[in-house]
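As a warm-up, study this chain.
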Amino acid sequence: MSFVSEKSKATPRSVIREMFAMQTGLDNLVSFALGEPDFTTPTHIIEAAAESFHRGETHYTPNAGIPALREAIARSYQERGLDYRPEEILVGAGAISVLCLACTAVLDIGDEVLLPDPGWANYQGLMMQVGAKPVPVRVSEENGFMYDVADLRAAVTPRTKLIVLNFPSNPTGGVADTENLRQIAELAKEKDLYILTDEIYHELLWTGEPYTSIASFPSMKERTIVVDGFSKKYAMTGFRLGWGAAPEEVTATMTKLVENVLSSVNEGVQWAGVAALTGDQSCVTEMLDHYRRRREIIVEGLNSIERVHCLPPKGAFYAFPNISQTGLGSREFAIRLLQETHTVVVPGVGFGQGGEGFIRISYATSEENIREGLRRIKKFVESLPG
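Now compare it with the structure written out below.
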């Protein structure tokens, strides 16, 4: 008998962290591995956390989060036309903790979950961790890396309970349009399915169109869990602060489950969240301007490399170039690039079989790093036979 559970053994390790670990100890490194803003958290947000601690707010907080933060989150949705009440909001330690709580709250052993392939690798691990069955649904470059509803429909079985949405997408930067979302919403209602939508990148849009949440469609708020957080928009990855918005029954269940894994999020961090949502947003505008410029540089640079082409990402801060014409698989490409040039990218196959032939590049790094990394990638590709 093994001490470690079989489902834990089967849960895959994140390929992002694997590549990040491989870069340790290398000099003259250019890393495109982590989806982490290279900006420091804005000063007024840091000060809000410090002021809370200095006020002596160093104790337990309500399991669902302090009222001021839940109210601020609810108001932010109301400003977007989504009528969420504070009672429908749960604060967690980063969006990943809320995703885990949501899966635990709504999935039973053996329930099937439809996931994008390629898609963020942790979705598959989360489902396996709670005993559900992940069912990858291929998304294609030709389709902007978004679901074809016909493929979703074909994947539905009597055990299907949940569809996972993530856009702007990690790893592809794809964004679903309104018609695609409408079709998914109609399928969910027809088949009595629920939606888990990861909207952590919803502010990072490069198409000029406003973000549309599937929860805004008729009768969809009642069957949708929205997960979001502060890490990407406000450069607060180290604060570990996120939230979920869901029907009150689901939020109450997640709040009950928090007690078993987290108890509560510390108060200073939550007041930092209040400051982020209610304070000056010019810091966000400035960061978004940098990302737009970096996106232009990286897409232009990748498409200038023979045997590489890159669909311009519509959102997030990832490029997902197609390297299939180089003759290397994505994993071999990434490892050789690391070993030979000290440049770190993530192999697309780490995001599902649909990611084979692609690599993920995070452009949440400086223009200097991007230009140097592109120079190395180009030199590496040119050195390959054929």
